[in-house]
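Supplementary Note 2. Why include the ligand at all?

Several targets in our set were suspected to adopt different conformations when bound, so apo predictions alone were not considered sufficient. For every target with a known small-molecule partner we therefore ran a joint prediction. The input for zinc ion is given below.
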Amino acid sequence: MSNSVANHEADVGGRMYAHATELFPICRSITGKGVRDTLASIRGRLPNLRVVAVPSGTKVNDWVVPDEWNVNEAFVESLDGHRVIDFADHNLHLVNYSVPFTGTVEREELLRHIHTIPDAPNLIPYRTSYYQRNWGFCLQHDRLDQLVDAEYRVVVDSTLEAGELNYGELYVRGRREEEIVFSTHICHPSLANDNLSGIAMMTELARYVDELPDRKYSYRFLYVPGTIGAIAWLAGNADVAARIGGMVVVALVGAAGPLHYKTSPDRNERVDRIVRRVLRQGEYEHVVRDFSPYGYDERQYGSPGYRIPVGSLTRRPYGEYPEYHTSADNLDLIDAVTLEESLRVYKDVVNAFEREEVYHNRYPYGEPQLGRRGLYDQLGGGTTAAEDRMAMLWILNLSDGSHSLTDIAERSGIDESDLRRVAAILEDRAVIDRGMNVG
Ligand code: ZN
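The joint prediction is reproduced in token form.
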């Protein structure tokens, strides 16, 4: 390894942190220029990233892509022109998707449009109003005392007009059509752990996968606005969804804390077994939780019409840290060392998918007739014969395209090297195969 490559690798944590820092000031939402600027920044690191535009008004399954939202400026000022709340100071001050509004309002009316966190009086909350047309401001609770005037002038110079929804997609082709997919949301404004840590880490993961020699699987990396973006992608990609062998929703990977894996709806998909093994074997401090239909886009990808085998791997879990969705989720909350460890875990997941061998039983309708193929004779005599027969029966039963030999070893208690030897014989007799390669 040359020195420059070593430095490049050594500094991956710093590079992810720098990417998050670059993206932090941008006012993102589910649509608009902030999303496009974010995707442009990612494309600077992943030149093959495809940026997709879905026009406002497009029906995507049960949803309709909303009008595009952009902000020029937004503030509240006293009638003598003193600004008391200003979007320019922090983009969290404006409720995301606030409709345009200009006018003088009484204090009581203004207060009805202001959101605070009484329990965390020095933090600005993050609020959205995507599908309910309204305007509002978010403020530190202990600044409410400053609003003593009878009337204020409110300016929300935003636009909510026909435009487009954008998402980014990187496809990395492997030998097989079957895909391993990673997805992260890209719709939060100046918030670091949720969600810039996910964007920065997944970008480095994509670079890593793109450089993997002789990939077995094809990979896809999705950068989508939460909910509507995932649904828009699904609506246009049912064919892709059907060939996803495993998927992980990436988020909350930059703030220190134990790793949390939330399983797929079916709990025991291949991705669930792989992530559990990676966390256990890497001796990472971790917690595994059963699926619940809340959190990020795992509930879209895992919805019954698609049932993609999807889990979510975070550090602190969704919503369960005090800085969550507040101005305290800033660049001080995340760090390069944590990002780097998270990346290592995700790379381990990719490598496990690549390394573990999965077979398909070519005679899955009842047991293939083994005697006719000389398979009992092939497997030697004495005790070994009985053991190898059990290995063979385990392989035949669980070789459904989802269970790897590692899974079968774990489940059966049979040594993986024995399974490998027996599988080679079965493969040689064309009873099992490794699935179809692309082209
Ligand atoms: Zn969030």
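The first strand starts at residue 50 and ends at 55. Residues 188, 194, 325 surround zinc ion (CB under 6 Å). Comparable summaries for the other entries are listed in the accompanying table.
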